[in-house]
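tool_call: predict_structure(chain=1)
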Amino acid sequence: MRAAILSQGRFTVETVPDPTPGPSTVVLAVSACGLCGTDHSIYSTRLLPDGAILGHEFAGTVVEVGQSVREWAVGDRVAVVPIPYCGHCELCRTGKQNLCATGLGAMMGCGGAPGGLAELVCVPTASLRRLPAALEPPRGALVEPLAVAWHAVKVAGIQPGTRVGVIGLGPLGLFCGMIARQKGALVFGTDARAHRVGWAHDLGLGAFASDDRPDEYIRDLTHGGPDVVFEASGKPESIERAAHLARTGGRVVLVASYHTPAEMTPGHWFNRGIALLPSIAYTREDFDEALEAITNRRVDVASLARRTHPLEEVQKVFDSFSTQTETAKLVIDPSRKTPQ
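tool_result:
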């Protein structure tokens, strides 16, 4: 099979041996694999050794099953839960499955088993979720990132009428805004990049560019500041900004990844009663609810992934990760051949 292999800080598409299924696993032909900030961080910081195959947001079709597999058959279309939760630690047993250290440390494509930037991938049956025939592969690959946002919205305690601000209108920020609005919230976002503000407008979200005095407008439109601010930019300096944007007694939900220290003023948070709520990953329940929302188009993500790229363009896609403007969500289709 062909796979995008990390080697000396770059991707090369190589032919490697096909995976074979174990007793309780299946082999999938990957039809779509989304890319996110975590993938780019792994790539740019060279977090994983040479030979790694990235990709944790993927969907595909079963092409081979292990000898003990009975509930899945060749031809079944699936999305993949890439985190192998242990199921028996205290966190898993007390409703905090998203914090399971065993699962997070063995996440497919992020240091665990090989991920979805390949034509074929071996997946345990416990990680499979059935996709309906009408669901296009790119939408199936978006279930995983939507589950991240789904969990964050749960952490935030969104109710009808909740006033929401979103800092950072990349895919994760857009997902949070879409889910919050679907739950009856009033949503306004902001981003430094005009094309991302345009994406938010296309989705029916209120949004402002950085040169439009966005925080001032959002505070005015929410009558004193949002009840909840999602910090989805991944910029450490935006954490303190989120506290200034939120109303007194509000909540700041961290939904991005942060790799450098942040300067914060604890007294500002304390004196105004601002709660800081980190949100990481998701539970299996969150994943299943996100899949149901995509399937029934309660959250319509189709417009976020307007095109797919063949496997041979992985390096080009990573090179343009922060500068491309044509689509909100980058998706690789390993089954797609590059025209000769």
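agent: The CA atoms of residues 97 and 248 lie 31 Å apart. Proceeding to next step.
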